[in-house]
Amino acid sequence: MKLDLIAIADLCIDILIDAQVKPEYGQVEQLADQYAIDLGGSVGIFASQIAKLGGSIGLISKIGDDPQGRIILQTLEQAGVDLSLVEIIPDEQTPMGLNLSCKGDRAMLTYLGTLKLIEPSVFKPDLVNQAAHWHIGSYFLLNNLIPAWPDWIKKLKEAGITVSLDTNWDPEENWERVHQILPLIDVFLPNEAEALAISGKDNLMEAGQFLVSQCPLVVIKNGADGALLFTRNEVIEYKIPADLLVDLHIVDTTGAGDNFDAGFIFEWLAGQDFNTCLYRGVQCGTESLKALGGVKSQILLKRI
Predict the structure, then answer these.
(1) Chain-centre distance of CA 83, in angstroms?
(2) 59: which of 9, 79, 110, 297 fits an S-S bond (Cβ 3.0–4.6 Å)?
(3) For the chain, percent of residues with pLDDT exceeding 70
(4) What is the 3-state secondary structure (H, E, C) of 216-283?
């Protein structure tokens, strides 16, 4: 059966700690309000939400043969994600993300583990026709793949397959490395900081105009201010609808952008208009704010 989507995943276990105080070095012990251990990684969160919306998605990745890896597999399997292309590597550790949340801000530390083993050999010819769409996430974390993406995306495009991209943050801040693939991308979904950094511009309007000159559809996620959608003919400034703000209590922002991506791409692949795509994206992103981590409060929606 042909899938709706395939993605190479930055699967990791997230350790999430929420506190009203920032950590201090010097052996200062402070108290946290709550913590969680759950599925993490931009693409893992994206895939979980796609599946819960009713889309079929398969992941390509490598994880360790350890308890953390088993939590990841169980969580994704329960969501309905195809894991047949996820490889379990003996004697290697599953990647880990430490997320420290304090008063609406976050600090993150990532241990790459088996992500360092994901190499261009994963681009096998028989994958080209297994899905109608490819989503690229954590472009900069999957560092070994960067030189190989242009040729692979060209093969996908030749087969009529669409491609979306969310780079996430670049730990090295070497943003020019993504410029090589932007003209090959159908939908680019950066957040505001990434859009400014990649474009080299000082404001989001200029950033969007620059990026859409490279890629035909750009959606910049802008937190509480909603989103900006750019095509080469129009700009949509999308504000968060009032119905999504009723009784909203923000617990954690982890994965909000990934859930937005899932909602937007799910509707875009279904041929919906931009306002419907934006609403679903904002709905998924906003709902995810209500719990610690990126998957606990995801929307469950099945098309009838």
Answers:
(1) 17
(2) 9
(3) 99
(4) CCEEEECHHHCEEEECCCCEEEECCCHHHCCCCCCCCCCCHHHHHHHHHHHHHHCCCCHHHHHHHHHH
For 137-181, what is each residue's pLDDT tens digit? 999 999 999 999 999 999 999 999 999 999 999 999 999 999 999
Residue 213 has pLDDT above 60, yes or no: yes
Residue 56: name the closest of 262, 277, 282, 257 by CA. Answer: 262
Question: Which sign does the torsion angle of CA 38, 44, 46, 49 carry?
Answer: negative
Residue 240 in domain: yes
Bridge partners of 5?
Answer: 57, 133
Owning domain of residue 180: 3-10+42-92+115-290
The Cα–Cα gap between 192 and 207 comes to: 9
* CATH number, position 167: 3.40.1190.20
Q: Which of 212, 171, 175, 168 is nearest to 191 (CA)?
A: 168
Structure tokens at 57: 């998605």
Residue 298 maps to a domain: no
Q: What is the CA radius of gyration of the chain?
A: 18
pLDDT given at position 195: 98
Q: What is the pTM of this model?
A: 0.94
Percent of the chain scoring above 90 in pLDDT: 86
Is residue 228 in some structural domain? yes
Instruction: Give the count of domains, the chain.
Output: 1
Kindly state the DSSP code that residue 118 receives in the 8-state scheme. -
Instruction: Please say whether the beta carbons of 34 and 292 come within 8 A.
Output: yes
Contacts of 253 (CB under 8 A, 6+ apart): 101, 104, 106, 289
Please give the Cα distance from 70 to 133 (Å, whole number). Answer: 27
What is the pLDDT averaged over residues 116-130? Answer: 96
